C-alpha cells in the first residue's frame, strides 16, 4: 500500500490554498454590496483551517511522492477540491441545496461548464467570480497534471509527451513544480490578454475578467443566462474564438516558445497542433455548408455562428451564442460527434483529444499495410519519431474504457427516468467535460437544474472520471493497486 502521508500533506496544502482564494469573492461581494460575503468569509476560515490542520497532521516530505502515490493524489485531490469548493455555494443565499452546490462546484473544477444555476444576470458578484475562479484553477490544474504527472504514469498514451529526462522512478512533485512555474506565467498572460480583448469590445470590467478566466480554461461558465450570446453584438464572440483555440493548444509549445527549449518553429512542426487546426477548420466548413444548404443562413453569414459554436463544443468550452438545436437534425448529430473530439494534450481542453485519434489512425494504417503482406515491416511513427507499441496499447485501452464508461453512464441515466436524447447527450457532455448537452432540457438554451439528484451524482462522477483521463481514477478501484 502506498504511503499516504505525502498525499494527505499535499491535499491539505491544496485545500488550505483554496480556502485563501475564497476571500477574493468575499471582497468582490463587499465592493458590490452583495449579500453573499458572509458565506465566503465563513467558508474561507473553515477551509483554510481544515487544510492547515490536515497538512500539519500528515507532515511528510512532499518530494517523496512517487508513482503509486501520484495516482492517489491526482484523484483524491480533485475530489476533495470539488467538495470543499461547494461550501460557499451552499451557504450563499441563492437557494441551492447541497447536491446542486456540489454539482456546480464539480462542473467548475473539472471545467465542464454544465450548470444548475439560473438568474445569473442578478446573482451576487461573489458567486459569479467564484465560479470563474474554480474553472480557472481547474484549467491550470489539469495542464500541470497532463504535462508533469500523467506522462510519467503512462495514462492513455500520455507517456508520448514524457519529458526527455523523466522516468517513472523519479520523484513526481519536483518535476511538476518546475513545469508549474512556466505554465502559471503563460496562463496569466493569456488570461490578461483575453480580458483586455473583451474590454475592447465594450464588455464591462467584471464580465471581462470572469469570461477571460473561463475562456482560457475552456470552461464555459458565464455571468449571463444568455452565455456569450448576451455579449456577441460587439464582437466578444470573435475574441472568444481566438482564446478558446489558444486554451486548447498544448501549453508545452508555449513554454518552449518563451525559453523552455524550442523556437516558434516548434509549433509549426507539432503534429497535434497541425491536426487540431485541420480538424477544426474542416468541421467549421461542414457546419457552415450545412447551415447554407438548410437555409438557416444565407451565403457566408452562417460562418461566424458555425465557427463559434463548433469551436466551443470541440474544445469543450461550452459557451453558446445560439440554440443550435434549432439548426436541424444534421447539426444536432454533428454537435454530438464534436463532443468526442477534444483539443490537444497538455491543454485545458477535454474529451478524447486529437493525439489519440492520430495514434489510432497510424496504428490502423500500419495494420492495413501489413495485412496483404504479413512479413512487411511497417513501423509506426508519430511526429517523425518511432511510436512504441506500449503507447498504442495504452491509447486503445483508453478508447475502450472511455466509450464503455459513456455507454454505461447513458444506460444508468436512462434508468433515472431521463429521455434518450437527454441521457445520451448528458453522458457524453459530462465524460467529455463539454458543458451543454442536446435537447430542450440540457441543451444550450437549458440547464441541468431539473434533473433528478440521482442523475446529478452520476454526472458528477463522470465529470471527474473524464477530467482525469479515465484510467487514473479507475485504477484505484482495482484490488491489486492497494496490495503491498
Task: Summarize the model shown.
The chain is mainly α and 484 residues long.
Description:
The chain is mainly alpha-helical and 484 residues long. The protein has a domain at 382-472. The chain has 22 helices and two strands. A two-stranded antiparallel ribbon has the order 1-2. Strand 1 (381-382) and strand 2 (385-386) form a beta hairpin. Helix 4 (67-85) packs antiparallel against helix 7, helix 6 (98-109) crosses helix 7 (125-153) and helix 13 (271-293) runs antiparallel to helix 15 (329-338). The radius of gyration is 22 Å and the shape is globular. The termini are close together.
Keywords:
22 helices; mainly alpha
Distance between the termini: 5 Å
**What's the gyration radius in Å?**
22 Å
Order of helices and strands: HHHHHHHHHHHHHHHHEEHHHHHH
Q: Work out the number of β strands.
A: 2
How confident is the prediction overall: mean pLDDT?
A: 88
Please state the overall shape, judged from the principal axes of the Cα atoms: globular
Q: What percent of the residues sit in helical stretches (DSSP H or I)?
A: 55-70%
The low-confidence parts are 164-170
Query: Which structural class do you get from the secondary structure elements?
Result: mainly alpha
- Count of separate DSSP helical elements: 22
Name the strands of the widest sheet in spatial order: 1-2
Range of strand content: under 5%
